[in-house]
Amino acid sequence: MTEEPSVPANYTANLFDLKGRVAVVTGAGSGLGAAIAMGYGQLGVTVIVADINLAGAEATRKTIEDQGGTAVVRELDVTKRAACFALAETAKSEFGHVDILVNSAGSAFRSPAEEFPEDKFNFILDLNLKGTYYCCQAFGRLMLAQGKGSIINIASIGSFVGYPWASAYLASKGGVLQITKGLALEWRDRGVRVNGIGPTLMESPLTKMAATSSSITADFIKARMLRPRLGLPRELVGTAVFLASDASELVTGHVVMCDDGYLTA
Ligand SMILES: NC(=O)c1ccc[n+]([C@@H]2O[C@H](COP(=O)([O-])OP(=O)(O)OC[C@H]3O[C@@H](n4cnc5c(N)ncnc54)[C@H](O)[C@@H]3O)[C@@H](O)[C@H]2O)c1
After folding, report:
1. pTM > 0.90
2. pLDDT tens for each residue of 39-95
3. Is 40 considered catalytic here?
4. Which of 12, 36, 55, 143 is deepest in the core (most CB within 10 A)?
5. How far is the CA of 10 from the centre of ligand 1 (A)?
6. Which domains does the chain have, with CATH numbers?
7. Is 78 in the pocket of ligand 1 (CB under 6 A)?
8. InterPro entries, alphabetically (predicted)?
9. Which of 126, 203, 204, 209 has most ligand 1 atoms within 8 Å of CB, for mutation?
């Protein structure tokens, strides 16, 4: 009798297969979320492009469809908990299931800590941390009921290290790291995996916007980069595919760094 090979024939053929899955990508109207949404669209995922910016969301939807994929736009303000739950409800009734959630909606505000305006501090925490949490809750419940799902939170090198004039952002991204671990632990034996992606400084509208208000933060980070080049949004797509797919079945509670080695130095 021949023994079953530990890797059966054709095992890897479907490991990264996402065809037929449904993904909600928040902040998909711009930057990193848009790139991940497009990447999923190319793999046959039905993408729910969720953003407060409808024009940006519409542009992402159009690109996905022009490239042969399927996408719908849904207006979402992630800082409104009820809106996150409402979107989870309508997504379930429209598509039957949601398999992937990417939390990419986020922003930054630059200020010295001793002068950081209270309203801006609250704005960043509400958007980056609480918005991520609300979506995890809303879609996590749905995924727990399905017994399967993958949540991917866009964290940052700022989840692990500091840089100047970014105290609210650092607090929010440190929180995103801890939410990722906490929820992964709570949900690990019920089929729902929760991971993160930790990008380096990337080329996106957000970094352009932040650079016009002050380059203090970006200059500090650039001086510590191992090579002087910003990441490109498409360079996150492979990791987003891996974390969404069955290839990462045993991976939960981790932030996969796409930082060009930034944290190694
Ligand atoms: N760009 C970088 O260098 C970098 C590095 C590390 C992490 N990140 C993180 O990646 C994520 C995406 O950043 P980006 O560079 O693509 O920024 P971006 O500004 O290009 O895109 C952010 C998107 O979020 C949307 N958004 C803002 N408020 C929202 C709300 N209340 N509800 C729903 N959508 C909302 C915006 O409309 C926009 O489409 C953020 O969480 C950011 O912190 C970015």
Report:
1. yes
2. 999 999 999 999 999 999 999 999 999 999 999 999 999 999 999 999 999 999 999
3. no
4. 36
5. 38
6. 19-258 (3.40.50.720)
7. yes
8. NAD(P)-bd_dom_sf, SDR_fam
9. 204
In sequence order, what are the residues at sequence separation of 6 or more whose Cβ sits closer than 8 angstroms to the Cβ of residue 198?
155, 156, 157, 159, 160, 255, 256, 257, 258, 259, 263
| Rounded distance between C-alpha atoms, residue 31 and residue 164, angstroms | 23
In whole angstroms, what is the distance from residue 49 CA to residue 37 CA? 7
CA of 29 to the centre of ligand 1 (A): 9
Q: Are 110 and 213 in contact, with CB atoms under 8 Å apart?
A: yes
Q: Is 32 in the pocket of ligand 1 (CB under 6 A)?
A: yes
CA distance 204 to 32: 7
- The active-site residue out of 40, 163, 169, 262 is 169
